[in-house]
What does this fold into?
Amino acid sequence: MAAPAPVRGQPIADDGDELRFCSTCAFASSCLAAGVDKSRLRELHMLVEHSGPSRAGDHLFREGDPFTAIAAVRSGTVKTYVTDADGREQVRGFFLPGEIIGLDAISESRYPCNAIALEPVVLCRFSFPTLAALATRMPGLQQQLFRLLSHDIGNAALLAGNHTAEDRLAAFLVGLSRRYAARGFRADRFQLTMSRADIANYLRLAAETVSRILRRFQDERLIRVRRREIELLDLPRLEKSALAVLRS
Amino acid sequence: MQVNVTPRPHGHIAPMGVPEYFDAELLRRYDRPGPRYTSYPTAPQFGPQFDERKFREVARRSNAEPIPSDLSLYVHVPFCFSPCFYCGCTRIITRDRARGALYLSRLMREIEIAAPLFDRDRDVIQLHFGGGTPNFLDAGELSALIGGLGRHFHFSDRTDRDFSIELDPRTLAAGDVRRLAELGLNRASLGVQDFDPEVQQAVNRIQGVEQTLAVIDECRASGMRSVNVDLIYGLPKQTLDGFARTLDALLAVRPDRLAIYGYAHLPELFKAQRQIEAADLPDAALRLELLQLAVQKLTDAGYRFIGMDHFALPGDDLSKAQSAGSLHRNFMGYTIHDDCDLVGFGVSSISHVGDSFSQNFRDLPTWERALDEGRLPVWRGIELDADDVLRADVIQQLMCQGEIDAAGVEERYGIDFRGYFADALAKLAPLAADGLVTVEPLRIAATSRGRYLLRIIAMCFDRYLAAAQAPRYSKAI
It folds into this structure.
């Protein structure tokens, strides 16, 4: 039989080359707005190094490692976490294709957390000193860098408030939906690439609670869950529930 | 029993028809070997690269799903007191009851090792004891077994949970059924095959009508929700008159479900079948008449055709699920429970966890040794790739609903149906010409004639059959 066409898999941002930016690149639009294309970046010694793929479970960096580069996720999902005094893991966040990891290392010059690949991951690394120098010459890039930094801080505060488990989970789903949409992927259907234990840990809930609430969302026709796939059937109602947490 | 584990006579097929569509000529023409599709890919695709480590990994991944599936547990008890000559199951003939106790102790070991792999908030919604003869274990041993499972897993308290057991009416003691019902079992399946004494003699299974009907009564009196009876056509010495009397005797008490399997004579594969005289077997014409007779009588008695070889009363859960489009199919046959992860215990049992199938060692000593060494007795299996998952979905739709929602498949998997399944559609063309199936751009549906040859239609979507036409499957009729 003829080789079947590929069945739809995970969204990947793997379409860049020597001359073109990846479609999800966090910096492409700032650079292009400043008239800097990819070949111009090379002339400016802005080396963009693609690394990976790392396998699921591989560490991309560990807490305390010296920080030299920030990295954009080209494909796969990255989880960051720290380990508390009792040896318990605390999930800090999840990073999707097109998102930047390592921003929180800038101030200390060392990574303040661990990063692990949840599935095969390809990264795009930028030397931070070069990027910072470049930013001084490109106001758009500088702004984008600030935007990313403030977004990263906002992300961390997102789930710290005293919200119900339902609202937090709704905010989590709406947040993922917006992040996928911002990178050009489907907003209403995506794979949950992190385990329910990771989601529970991130939202400070019990794993059973995560499943119980998702099941209730499903019974209320807010979502449909199939294995790892989530379909958002009623985004307006989810957003309403998420509003208290997301505040926008 | 779990069907499709190995080719097995009474796990083996008979497309059924309501009489007006019962096209004998067509059925004869399509009488060719094929799998039963209790799984896709089918068991011959299982391989040794799927081992204990893989099993642990797929179990871990299944816990990581946002809403982990409920669990369905299967326990295989391989022992029988005497050999039924038609049988192709994994079984061991012995009269030594002590072997049951030894087997039970290792089952407990297997439960202890496997259960912790599954998160405790995953409810057991389905439990089935198959064989062999599950009631080779006495009521006390079965009680200990269910107790062990209940300690290590969380049994659902939903009223629609299915806890079922295959019963051999010949080996039940007084009060056994009541005790089993008290343990929580709410469905029973009884092997009958045929009440005709000549047939019973020829297959070495002597089982009285009164004895059988008494067990059905006892199941009901004990509050069991449903009783299934298995019959087989195509057995040696079988006659239309004798089979009619068997059907009449059973229909008088209206079992909730009936399965009419076709006997497949494969003596080169199944040693017990060598006891059967080939000359005593009904010819192809009589086989069809026997099948037609059963279909006629069941239809007249108000039973609904569920699919493959299964019939149910209109009020039975399977009939209701079929009407609601929520019927599913797994290794234990048709079920109302969607997308469970199936965990098999005991020699030869099959598991279906996440996108994988796996099977335990089929021979007792190897299964025992693994457990004695503290290992899970995983023999072989397969991890489904994206193409397998897609085809499994399509085949499941066909086997359960009798049709494929091509538009829905395109949407869910992001494919172009006509392009992706070009080869399958080409294979469907002659079946469509014969009036078995209608092929429209958005929907492929078995016709009322084709519903009784579902697996012939499903075979068009089986990627592995194209590679090698296996001779090990029974014929479709």
Remarks:
- Residues 98-114 of chain B form the longest helix (17 residues).
- Residues 3-20 of chain B have pLDDT under 50 and may be disordered.
- Chain B touches chain A through 24 residues (CB under 8 Å).
